[in-house]
Amino acid sequence: xxxxxxxxxxxxxxxxxxxxxxxxxxxxxxxxxxxxxxxxxxxxxxxxxxxxxxxxxxxxxxxxxxxxxxxxxxxxxxxxxxxxxxxxxxxxxxxxxxxxxxxxxxxxxxxxxxxxxxxxxxxxxxxxxxxxxxxxxxxxxxxxxxxxxxxxxxxxxxxxxxxxxxxxxxxxxxxxxxxxxxxxxxxxxxxxxxxxxxxxxxxxxxxxxxxxxxxxxxxxxxxxxxxxxxxxxxxxxxxxxxxxxxxxxxxxxxxxxxxxxxxxxxxxxxxxxxxxxxxxxxxxxxxxxxxxxxxxxxxxxxxxxxxxxxxxxxxxxxxxxxxxxxxxxxxxxxxxxxxxxxxxxxxxxxxxxxxxxxxxxxxxxxxxxx
Length: 370
Ligand SMILES: Nc1nc2c(ncn2[C@@H]2O[C@H](COP(=O)(O)OP(=O)(O)OP(=O)(O)O)[C@@H](O)[C@H]2O)c(=O)[nH]1
Ligand SMILES: [Mg+2]
Known about the structure:
It is a single chain. By secondary structure, this protein is of the alpha/beta class. It has two domains: about 1-55; about 70-330, 3-Layer(aba) Sandwich (Rossmann fold). Helix content is about 40%, strand content about 15%. The protein contains ten helices and nine strands. The protein has helices at about 1-30, 60-70, 85-95, 155-170, 200-210, 225-245, 260-270, 310-320, 320-345, 365-370, and strands at about 75-80, 120-125, 130-140, 185-190, 215-220, 275, 280-285, 285-295, 295-300. A six-stranded mixed β-sheet has the order 2-3-1-4-5-6, sandwiched between helices. It has a three-stranded antiparallel β-sheet with strand order 7-8-9, with no helix packed on it. It is globular and about 65 Å long. Mean pLDDT is about 80; it is low at about 1-40, about 100-105 and about 355-370. Magnesium ion (MG) binds near residues 88 and 138.
C-alpha cells in the first residue's frame, strides 16, 4: 500500500518535470538543458507500472488480428504447364493434403481427365479460427497443338483480366469496402522431369509470365528421377533460369531485410521443387497417407524424404502467403495500374478498352462499367 503511494508520487513528479521542460523550451525558442537528468538506460521507454505513459500501441496487433480473422484471407494460385504433367492431380493433392483435410472433403473420386477449359476450384479452409478462401485455377496444358506459338496468350490474358477487374472496382465512385480479389497471387509452373535443360517453350512462357505474376517453378512427376538426377536437374534449371533472365519467386530485389534474405536464399537454393502428385490414399503403418503405389513401394507425397510437395505447400501457404499477396499488389498490380492509367491519360479518356494482349473487355462493357 505504502509502495503504491510512493510510486504515484514519483510519477506525478515526473509528469510535472516534463511539463516544466516543455515550458522552458518554449520560453525564448532556445533549447534549455533539462531540469532533471534523463536516465540513459531507460531512454524514454515506458516500463512496468508507468501507466501515465502507456498508450497501448502493442494492442494494435490484437486489433489487426481480430479484424483479419473476421475478414479472412483470399489466396489464388494458378497451375500452368504442358499437358499431362500432373497439374490437375497436384491441385487435388493440395486440397486433399493436410492443408484442408480437416476442413473440407472434396469429392474427387471420379478420374481426373484432360483439362480443356480454365477452371477455378475453391475451398474455404479454416484452421484455429482463421478462414482462408483458397482458389486454385487449373489451366489446360499446352503443347498438344502442332503450332504452339503464342500458347501463353490465354494465361497472360486471364492474369491481366483479373488486374483489370480489380482496377475498375477501385475506380468506381461507390467502391466496395472490400474489393473481391481474384488476382493470381502465384503461378506454379510445371517443368517436365524428362528433359536435360529448360526447353525453349518454357523459357518463352516463363519470361512472359514473370513480368506479370510471381512464378514458382516445379519439376513435375519427380518420382521418375533418381536422387542424383533430381539434384543435377534442379541445378541445371537454376542455371538456365538465371542465364535467360527469368524472374521467379522469391526475387532477390524484393527481399526486405537481412532476415528475409537468409530465408529466401535457402528457398532460392532449393527451387525448382521436385513434386509428386496423387489423389489416392494408402495405408502405411496403419496410417492413411497420400501416395502413389508402385510395384516397389509407396511414394508418400507429403513425406519430405520422398518428394518436395510439402516444401512447395509450406512456401505457398505457411511461410510466404502474405508476401506473395504483397508482391502481387505492390509490384505486379501496381505496374499494370500505372501502365493502364498512363495509357488512358495519353488518350485523354477514362480507362480505355483492353487490347487483346491485355485482356478481353470490349469497349461497350468498359464504358458501361465506368
Ligand atoms: N508418375 C507420376 N504420374 C503422375 C503424377 N501426377 C499425375 N500423374 C499422372 O499423369 C497423368 C496426367 O495427369 P493430369 O493431372 O491430368 O495432368 P494435367 O497436367 O492436368 O494435364 P492437362 O489437363 O492435359 O493439362 C495422369 O495419369 C496422372 O495420374 C506424378 O507426380 N507422378
Ligand atoms: Mg489438367
